[in-house]
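Example 644, ligand magnesium ion.
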Amino acid sequence: MTAQEIRQKYLDFFKAKQHVVIPRALLVPQNDPTTLFTGSGMQPLIPYLLGEKHPAGTRLVDSQTCLRAQDIEEVGDNRHTTFFEMLGNWSLGDYFEAEQLPWFFEFLTDVVGLDPKKLYVTTFIGSEQHGIPRDTEAAGIWKDLFSKKGVEAKEAEIGSETDGYKRGVKTGERIFYYNADKNWWWRGDKIDDMPPGEPGGPTSEVFYEFDFVKHNPEYGEHCHPNCDCGRFVEIGNSVFMVYVRTEAGFEQLPKRNVDFGGGLERIAMAAIDSPDVFKISLLWPIAEKLEEISGKKYDAHTSAMRVIVDHLRGATFLAVDGVVPSNKEQGYVMRRLVRRAIRFAFELGVEQNFLEQVVPVIASLYQDDFPEAAASRDKVIEVLTREEKVFRQTLRKGLQEFEKIVLTSSLGDGDHFRNDLERRLSGQMIFKLYDTYGFPVELSKEEAFKRDIAIASDADVQFEKCMHEQRQRSQTAAKGVFKGGLGGQTLQHKKYHTATHLMYQALRQTLGDHVIQHGSNITEERLRFDFSHPDKMTPEQIKQVEDIVNAQIDNDLKVSYAEYPTNQAREELGALGAFGDRYGDKVKVYKMIADSADKPFSFEICGGPHVDHTAQLKEDGKRFKILKEESSSAGIRRIKAVLA
Ligand code: ATP
Ligand code: MG
């Protein structure tokens, strides 16, 4: 049975059980700024699970398109994709365990035709600490269901995941009790952290066993359903929302909900008994196209092909839902998917444009079942092929930078070569090319090889070190997405820092020397700047400031800094500072100066970080633009500006 048929049969199955088929939510959640993507079927339904009335009634079913950017590193294994569909059915205070488990079992065994002997289930072991009993009801239902199919189903006590690796599975066991880390759901993470008033409940998961996959002891000594080796694959998860936490402990809710989510792709792989999800009908045609384009075999290049197939499918669906590649939020994830796919294609020797051949294959897989995919087909192909062109330009730029960085070795970190023999491609250089210009690591190495430049023996270690630091910085930045602040250190932050200095100076030139900085806030998306000025700026003044900034970006000012005693910086040298800022004895002063000039355009006290050259601000054809000029408080104006 194909994945498409499974989707349809699932919807029909629950329709016959009085469920209303509801449309999928878009991949970009509407009215929810706390998360970038719809990552489960439940997510758009949370208000209804918490008690709001759903207009379609108390029994719902759908297939929800999901994107989990957090699974990007898992792609390449046998069962994770960033984009997938989650089949879902819900009872809003209607039916409960005694209906849910038999229905799902019936669907899997009688409709899809899975062998019940390959199904294993888990259920909640209970929590003494919280006074919640084990879910013996679920275990009893499962026992009964298996027994009707003539399949032995002994119960087994596991507890934690670690216990599972120690204990493994014994003959005849099929129903496994796990603790709250595995079989308890609430909106947060640990059961202990649930606040009073918060609903939650036990879950029961179903796993399919690919019995010819041998357990890999790298994951743990023994295999068990929640082991990550790939032998057992989770295909569905029923949540029984029946408890609410109170000050006194856990109490039963008057209205009990069921929330079920099962991966369509996972069920489809079980249906063809393939331990590789990429062999299913919604993915394999894409891989075949790649085989044709590259002339390489999937079996010989499995990881790279999986990444390309997955990423292009995800990016395609993002385009269907109106996302365009950019440097922020959803657009950034989409850009990352497309570019990563193109880079992995290099490994297959595909160096020419190929998205125009692959994207139509993907669109065709979905256009019959998702009318919006059919309707937006041309636009989607255009959006993706355009991004491919932009990226190839970036790559060309990267090559030029390679020349500059490696041949003139102007890394600026004391990494100077005294002569040709010392010339080495270092991990820091590889990282800089990768981070700043998006230039792939393998390409840096290849280019070095072509030019007979040795690669430093610790290049990989150093590169990893830089990556690690970068990840920590961007995690900090991601946490600050909604907080703003000066915490971030990504390239995007640096660009906005630099743009802020240029704009500060441009404001003073345009409005006068009374302009003093009163505050600044930078995110990856924009800069915000408060300054003293009594009047609203006129459109002409705004335009003039923009023009000055863009001219200085074009002039490609060199950005550098030096430390000075504070008095000297302020009084003698006239460095700009911010109103109310307290400085120590010494300050860092950033200077932005044109090659030909004898006086810097900007000379400002600041902790940084900044880009090295102002022309970096116009990468990808970006220009500086003031979006908003408004009053912040008496005598203080506020500007929001972007590089777009
Ligand atoms: P896993 O442990 O396999 O990552 P999960 O615990 O993250 O799964 P849930 O959040 O319970 O999964 O999602 C419900 C269902 O969605 C899972 O049972 C699985 O079938 C499917 N699913 C989850 N993540 C993915 C993914 N990255 N690709 C494909 N299917 C997925
Ligand atoms: Mg997961």
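Summary: Residues 40, 68, 71, 80-81, 84, 86, 234-237, 261-263, 265-266 surround adenosine-5'-triphosphate (ligand 1) (CB under 6 Å).
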